[in-house]
Write a structure and sequence with these properties.
The complex is a heterodimer of chains A (261) and B (480).
Chain A (H helix, E strand, L loop, with lengths): L9 H22 L10 H8 L1 H34 L5 H9 L6 H16 L6 H27 L2 H9 L4 H12 L1 H17 L1 H6 L7 H10 L3 H35 L1
Chain B lengths: L4 E11 L5 E11 L3 E5 L6 H9 L6 E6 L2 E2 L10 E4 L11 H11 L4 H14 L15 H13 L5 E5 L7 H18 L2 E6 L2 H7 L2 E6 L2 E6 L1 H6 L4 H6 L4 E9 L2 E4 L2 E4 L9 E6 L4 E4 L6 E10 L4 E7 L2 E7 L8 E6 L4 E5 L5 E7 L4 E4 L2 E6 H4 L4 E2 L5 E2 L11 E7 L5 E3 L7 E10 L4 E7 L4 E6 L8 E5 L6 E6 L2
Parallel strand pairs in B: 3-8, 3-9, 6-7, 7-8
Antiparallel strand pairs in B: 1-2, 1-4, 4-5, 9-10, 11-12, 11-14, 12-13, 14-20, 15-19, 16-17, 16-19, 17-18, 21-22, 21-26, 22-23, 24-25, 26-32, 27-31, 28-29, 28-31, 29-30
Helix pairs in contact in B: 2-3, 2-4, 3-4
The chains are: A mainly alpha (261), B alpha+beta (480).
């Protein structure tokens, strides 16, 4: 058999089949069957009629939304000033923001837990707040980086053009810089919002016993209810797909704009 | 008349923290409705000057006056000046209408007026009906027109154009040159145009400002600049030219390039001059009819003409003519008096470069000069580990630092004793100035020194030049 470059794709193809396609099929199978292996929509209707599950979904949503909002508020000004300033140590400062990502996750959260305990005394008094603080700490770099990259790629002449045409600094920001950095904001949000909905480890470590989506799925599997767990995982997958579809169109738009520069 | 000047730049200087001067003592007056071009090689400071007029950059010192009032520190959005950017800088997230209307919206112009003005300006740039189109659907030339329209719609007092045609292909560029010139005539707005393309500058401008190394070299009409270049840089940059150094030998008589010519510039006998001769002003004749004779060393056919190089003694002449010549043949060359442009060097100060050696001592021609580098570079000092730092504490990179030494011709002494002086050479030219002789000494370093001496030496004499340390003036240049 002659060797062709296509053969190089075989290992990845196998990987794809084994670890992506097959598990998905299994997931679908379990989601739409009951314990006896018969087809059922019961898991789906069960989720939406279970007040506990719906409450968890809402709670996860709330944590993710607040975390994303706080991250955005902290990250945008930081990224903006970093990208537009002329200081020499710029790359060093960006590095400092990114560096926590290189330190073991559980170590960071444990340290945070100690600090919060010192301040609050009893962590269980502010479970929601602690969860948001922990997740913001964990996800902030994922918000800063895409926004920083988008703004630094902006042609400086565009800002100058706006000022040249009579817009002051505030107007220039609102009409040129902000609209042109939307792409960075969207990728920042998608990198923070979805993980924040499922990352129960932060909650666990900060003594927050409320379930979020991640822990809910875990609890189903722990109770050997594979069918119900699979359905919730599938619902989450659906939400992610929906989100990507919604932001995808905007993404394409700004990429075309970016190519023009 | 003071009042007709729309913009004036007075002693404008822009220097950077590291001591690099992007623009030095720039003076310019522009009259209302003029088409002025800043011309120079890249890095000559022309764009920096334009940016200071627009307000994107502030002068370190000096003043910019608009209609007699200082706008030096005004932010760009408060100046009645608009810019066409080098790469257009159109807003990619807006359609053409919104791009053009951007400036008018900032001024809170009523919607119906904006509509009218946008329509009008689109007609002016020949893009009627393009309002709803997306920027990315336009060709380079069309984007260029939109950029011009976006600036013009605000009816600025001055339109700044920063190499606006640089990104276009040759044919597009020529077309746009005519269109811009047309627009300028039609609108009567003052244009300030930046380019490194001399042809573009000559075609379009009323007035050209030639710049080099941050300094104005010459300001004048295209004809002035082409026909009467003020110095060798301008002559060389604008069109092709033969540049010779020579000496005035009598009334309207000049010696350069191996021959004695009659010229029209009345310069005192004995003056050291630079002569510029355009290649099309040299005529090739038979050897007996020429002022100088030489051998043809090369012929290149250029379509409209031949480019012929002729070696006369040690000098090479470059000639453009419609007549062909044979390589290797002997020819005579002549130049009509009005084809020779004489430029008098303002002073004959000798300038030479010294190196900084490993011991942080100045070195010239292998001899150490007894002075310390820290004395020459103001505020500099040596750190303990030996590195040299400037007043701000930044390391001075010796590879990027040049020390220039200047010395007056009267301060140099000539001697027979070869190893006494700093540099040795042969006398290649001399002239009596009434009370002393002026000599040109061609040194072994291939650099000419001008020396005044009361004693008479002979042509070709081998001399050594003694340059006293206390008469040397030092300056240093840091390259970016």
């Amino acid at each position: 058999m002659k060797f062709s470059r296509k053969n190089l794709g075989i290992p990845y193809f196998l990987f794809l089949i084994l670890f992506v396609v097959l598990p998905l099929i299994v997931l679908f199978y379990y989601a739409f069957t009951n314990g006896q292996g018969q087809f059922t929509m019961g898991n789906l209707t069960g989720f939406f009629t279970d007040p506990n599950a719906l409450g968890t979904l809402l709670y996860s949503f709330a944590i993710a939304a607040v975390t994303t909002g706080v991250c955005l508020l902290l990250a945008y000004p930081t990224a903006y000033f970093l990208a537009t300033s002329t200081i020499k140590a710029k790359s060093v400062i960006v590095m400092i923001f990114v560096m926590p990502m290189w330190i073991n996750f559980s170590l960071r959260i444990t340290a945070l837990k100690e600090i919060l305990t010192l301040i609050e005394g009893n962590l269980s008094m502010y479970p929601f707040l602690n969860a948001v603080i922990g997740m913001t700490y964990d996800f902030l770099p994922f918000m800063i980086l895409p926004i920083y990259t988008t703004i630094s790629r902006l042609d400086g002449a565009l800002r100058e053009a706006a000022m040249d045409l009579g817009a002051n600094e505030r107007k220039t920001f609102l009409t040129v810089t902000l609209p042109l950095s939307v792409q960075g904001i969207i990728s920042g949000i998608s990198m923070v919002f979805l993980p924040a909905m499922t990352n129960y480890v932060v909650l666990d470590m900060l003594n927050n016993s409320t379930y979020i989506m991640g822990s809910l799925i875990g609890s189903y599997f722990a109770a050997y209810n594979w069918n119900g767990g699979s359905m919730i995982a599938l619902i989450l997958l659906g939400i992610i797909c929906l989100f990507t579809l919604l932001t995808g169109s905007g993404d394409e738009e700004s990429q075309r704009g970016g190519a023009l520069l | 008349m003071e009042s007709t000047n729309i913009i004036e730049l007075k002693h404008v200087t822009r220097s950077f923290e590291d001591g690099f001067n992007a623009v030095t003592d720039f003076n310019l007056e522009v009259k209302r409705g003029e088409f002025v071009t800043f011309l120079g090689p890249s890095g000559c400071g022309k764009t920096t000057t334009l940016r200071m007029i627009a307000g994107f950059d502030l002068p370190t010192s000096g003043e910019i006056l608009l209609n007699g009032r200082s706008i030096t520190d005004l932010p760009p959005y408060k100046r009645p000046i608009n810019t066409v950017f080098q790469r257009y800088a159109l807003f990619p997230h807006m359609n053409i209408y919104d791009n053009i209307a951007y400036g008018l919206k900032q001024k809170k112009t009523p919607k119906d007026q904006i509509d009218k003005k946008v329509k009008k300006v689109l007609a002016l740039v020949d893009l009627e009906g393009f309002e709803k189109r997306n920027i990315s659907t336009l060709s380079g030339g069309q984007q260029q027109r939109i950029a011009i329209a976006r600036a013009l719609v605000n009816e600025p007092e001055i339109l700044l154009l920063d190499e606006p045609l640089g990104a276009l292909d040759l044919k597009m560029r020529q077309e746009m040159q005519y269109e811009l010139k047309d627009m300028h005539k039609k609108l009567g707005i003052t244009f300030i145009y930046v380019t490194h393309d001399q042809e573009e500058a000559l075609t379009m401008s009323d007035k050209i400002v030639v710049m080099n190394e941050g300094k104005v070299q010459q300001i004048g009409t295209p004809e002035d600049i082409y026909n009467e270049p003020k110095n060798a840089f301008v002559a060389d940059f604008i069109g092709e030219s033969n540049i010779f150094s020579g000496i005035m030998t009598g009334k309207l008589k000049v010696r350069f390039g191996g021959g004695e010519y009659v010229c029209v510039d009345d310069v005192a006998q004995g003056t050291h001059i630079t002569a510029v001769v355009r290649p099309e002003d040299i005529e090739i004749t038979t050897p007996d009819k020429g002022i100088v004779t030489g051998t043809v060393t090369g012929v290149i056919f250029k379509g409209m003409h031949y480019e012929i190089s002729v070696q006369v003694g040690r000098t090479e002449y470059m000639i453009q003519t419609v007549k062909n010549a044979v390589v290797g043949s002997r020819v005579g060359l002549r130049v009509e008096p009005d084809g020779i442009h004489i430029m008098v060097a303002e002073d004959h100060t000798n300038i030479f470069n010294a190196e900084i050696n490993k011991n942080y001592r100045l070195e010239f021609n292998g001899t150490e000069i007894e002075t310390s580098v820290t004395k020459i570079i103001k505020g500099s000092r040596r750190l303990e580990d030996g590195t040299l730092v400037d007043a701000h504490g930044d390391t001075i990179d010796l590879d990027r630092t040049r020390i220039q030494i200047s010395i007056d011709p009267g301060d140099i002494e000539m001697t027979d004793e070869q190893d006494v002086g700093l540099v040795q050479g042969n006398i290649s030219n001399l002239i009596y100035l009434g009370d002393r002789y002026s000599y040109v000494v061609q040194t072994d370093l291939e650099q000419d020194f001008i020396v005044y001496d009361e004693d008479l030496w002979n042509m070709g004499d081998r001399v050594s030049l003694v340059i006293p340390l206390e008469k040397m003036k030092f300056s240093y240049i840091r390259k970016k």
